[in-house]
Amino acid sequence: MNRGVIHVDESPIPLERWRRYLPTWLKRFLPIRGGRAEDHHGKGMFGFTVFLLSESIVFLSFIFTYVALRLTHSQNWLSPGISGPELSTFVIISTVVLLSSSFVIQRAENALQRNQINKFRWLWLMTICMGTYFLIGQGIEWSNLDFGLSTGLVGSTFYVLTGFHGLHVLAGVIFQIIMLVRSFIPDNYNKGHFGASATTLFWHFVDIVWVFLFSLLYLW
Fold it and tell me: Could you give the CA distance from residue 194 to residue 68 in angstroms, rounded to a whole number?
């Protein structure tokens, strides 16, 4: 295959025309000229962004369902003797750790782009530890709650929302471990680092979703 070949952009949306007006950080998620043959990173990031958009629709459906149920069952939302999820210091610390990990993983990716592989490894490992801390914290919180999955609407909605998000956090940690292991393969990232970039984007997505869930479950 000729690596200089340019695929014709047959999209009904003139992405290339609009692309020039986008900020640099956003251009990385769009393929060039319909996808240059050598632009594997751009095409990969665009496809992964579309995947995350589909994931966001699933989360939005859960969130809208929660809001609708909360509004229509405001009088009997909590069963007798149930206090519901509480905004404790432990929950706040776990949230701060998770959200702070977005800055850490972004610095790790920036280090990888500058070929600072050791710095990338340490920052990447730190992100793994922060994500693991959040998961352990969520497990501890679940074990101390005074309601279960079958305890009315508050139980079913809380565990579904936090559990589904927790699965995404777990997936993100697994992806990070895989990328960290791959960094020890000689010259692995010299050919590109789509995996690390996609994992970073996925982690930002997980953190943004938690901001909405935290606000709904603990502040409302």
Answer: 39
